[in-house]
Write a structure and sequence with these properties.
Layout lengths: L7 H7 L21 E8 L6 E7 L4 E7 L1 E4 L4 E4 L24 E5 L2 E5 L1 E3 L21 E7 L4 E7 L8 E11 L1 H5 L6 E3 L13 E3 L5 H4 L3 E5 L7 E5 L2 E2 L11 H5 L7 H22 L9 E3 L3
Parallel strand pairs: 12-17
Antiparallel strand pairs: 1-11, 2-10, 3-9, 3-11, 4-5, 4-11, 6-7, 6-10, 8-9, 13-14, 14-15, 15-16
């Protein structure tokens, strides 16, 4: 796995931003307020599950990512949060959770329903990493997991090893959560020129046309992404007219906002995947309907 230049933890904890807001029943101080993040440390030699104060809510998008490697046993070697492949039959007798890779991070909901972290983009989410179609994420895979919560639950984490005493090191785990309400409110920050921009709009803001890769989510229309003060904004036009409702409407993308709208950075595409694309797809699949984004602001020229 390639090492990212800036870790997700540092980026999401330290980056912020402000912008003018339209009137709404719920106030968001910045796009960072659209999701919640917790960071915790899991010792490799821990003998009991780590019970956290993280409570996920029903129908909440949950994304778990694991950083670091641990040393497993005296002779086995190192592994990341996805564990050593199950094909290592000699290790199966040491698995605390038989169905998962040895040394992997296992999370439990209310002390039950164990699920191990896997290789995102290899074992989970392969459809988002298609050669020639998907963007460069700057990584081969990420140890983690993502899902929509079926019920409210308190999370705990464990190491898949029934003899952890001779393990060394620790994992760093982040847990991101986004409610369906907050996901649909992302256009609280979407500001779009009424007329299709020609590289810049009438206020001097720069826009980049996306091309055909936007067609999958926004139909055969013209999609533009904002730069600078409009970072994260996406505006979609049908025959020159701004789309303001329906399934083809543009959506504010938190991942690109974190990177000031710079579409040349591989990490920006990965954070766009986990903070924007995955919530969209999982909520749509879970609720059997497309999101109804609200609050988009239309900017008109005098």
């Amino acid at each position: 796995m390639k090492i990212a230049v800036i870790t997700l933890i540092v980026l999401l904890m330290m980056m912020g931003g402000t912008t003018q807001q339209p009137t709404s029943q719920k106030h968001y101080s910045s796009p960072r307020a659209l999701y919640r993040m917790d960071t915790l440390f899991l010792k490799a030699n821990r003998s009991q599950p780590l019970l956290t104060n993280i409570t996920i809510q029903q129908n909440e998008f949950v994304y778990i990512e694991v950083y670091g490697k641990i040393s497993v046993g005296t002779f086995v070697g190192e592994t990341d949060g996805a564990g050593i492949p199950r094909s290592s039959l000699s290790l199966m007798m040491y698995n605390k959770y038989p169905d998962f890779n040895h040394g992997s991070v296992v999370f439990l909901r209310n002390g039950k329903s164990p699920q191990a972290c896997v290789r995102i983009l290899e074992d989970l989410g392969m459809k988002y990493d298609l050669p020639g179609v998907s963007p460069d994420y700057g990584i081969d895979y990420v140890p983690g997991y993502y899902f929509i919560a079926d019920e409210a639950a308190r999370l705990s984490f464990d190491i898949n090893d029934n003899e952890p005493v001779n393990n060394r090191g620790e994992y760093i785990i982040i847990v991101l959560r986004m409610s369906h309400e907050d996901h649909q409110a992302r256009n609280y920050f979407n500001r779009c020129p009424e007329k299709k921009p020609n590289e810049t709009d009438c206020q001097g803001h720069t826009w980049i046309e996306e091309g055909i890769k936007s067609y999958y989510y926004h139909g055969i229309n013209d999609s533009y992404r904002g730069q600078g003060e409009r970072a994260g904004c996406q505006c979609v036009y049908d025959d020159g007219r701004l789309i303001t409702k329906g399934k083809n409407i543009g959506s504010f993308d938190i991942g690109y906002w974190h990177f000031d709208g710079d579409l040349t950075k591989p990490q920006a595409h990965y954070y766009h995947l986990i903070l924007d694309v995955l919530p969209h797809d999982l909520f749509e699949e879970k609720l059997s309907k497309a999101p109804e984004y609200k609050y988009q602001r239309v900017e008109r020229c005098e």
